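LAB NOTEBOOK - FOLDING QUEUE
OPERATOR: T.R.
BATCH SIZE: 2
PURPOSE: Compare the predicted structure-token outputs for two unrelated chains run back to back under identical settings.
PRIORITY: normal
REVIEWER: second-year student, initials M.K.

ITEM 1
FIELD SEQUENCE / FIELD STRUCTURE:
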Amino acid sequence: MILLSNVSKVYDNGSTALNNISFVIERGEFVFIVGPSGAGKSTLIKLLMHEETATSGDVIIKNVNVGQLTQKQIPYLRRNMGVVFQDFRLLPNKTVYENVSFAMEVVGAPKRAIRRQVPAVLSMVGLAGKAKMLPGQLSGGEQQRVALARALVNNPAFLIADEPTGNLNPKTAMEIMELLDEINKRGTTIIMATHAKEIVNVMKKRVIAIEDGVIVRDEARGDYGYEN
């Protein structure tokens, strides 16, 4: 479970990114975070990942108050979450297999577990035959599938996706969303910040809309609600 209670974030220059927001995301939910550019979506994602800390209020993830973690404890928090970005962030000189296995190596997973888990997750995202290829040899959609595999290989409780379809054409974007939907049905909680109006409208998931740092809408089967 993720709980935000009266969370505000004010930057050093005085700008308020988030203003007293509260919500609960239960285990197994699929939630879209939407809103205009500059609304506070990216700040919210960074708070969940502990890349930023709240100025006030509490961010609770799996009964842990994220704001009270020491620097040494942060990596243990992040083991519970996979993260996917718009720009893939793959290591260009490592193969598909090596990009995914690296995520297990950094948390100290045994080699036997890596040899078992990496092929399984590559198969799940439809890349079983691409393990030896480099990212530059793949299409954008395939690169995002590698990023998804890397995010999922440690079996995280949460998947945080920040504009994961932003660099993809509509057909490929929908394929990635179908994959995310399947991952969600297997039990992974998904929180996705997006400007993709068509995707949000088609998928009919929970929608939390943020404007000027404030939650203005929280709907169980919501629409995007904005003109792009």
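ITEM 2
FIELD SEQUENCE / FIELD STRUCTURE:
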Amino acid sequence: MRNPRFRLLLHWIPALVGIGVILAESTATMSAENTSRWLLPFWIKLFGPISPARWEVVHHYIRKTGHFAGYGMVSLGFFDSWRVTLERHWADFGVRIRNAAGLALLSTLLLASWDEWHQSFLPNRTSSVRDVGIDFCGAVAAQLVLLAVLSLWRRRPGVRVATA
């Protein structure tokens, strides 16, 4: 691709889509009460009837797993965006990857914090520092898996990584 700005824009699209998904999910429409309305029938179709008390626990864990996995995916989008953005500043692959991972974690933490702050103003939504922690743990887990995969990939015989 000849136009570096267009290439950079393309690599920011996954992060921007992730931000858009978080924004959409940060509304009253995605409150626990509303998600239970469509998740419960889905659960019953897959696994059969469940008591209201048990459903409350299961629903809680489904939502927290969504936080963990969703913010993990968002952090991967941020990673790719920062990786390409930093190409001009750090030619060394390892340094660029570590810096991109750090910036991806920071970006994800800021987004998670903003999301919880925003929810504190919405009726039917709760704001929780614990959710920010879950979101950040999802981001850290995704980055660790990504860095492990990249490390294994780089160690394969015959793999050469361009430094610039």
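REVIEWER COMMENT (ITEM 2): The first helix runs from residue 4 to 25.
FOLLOW-UP: none requested
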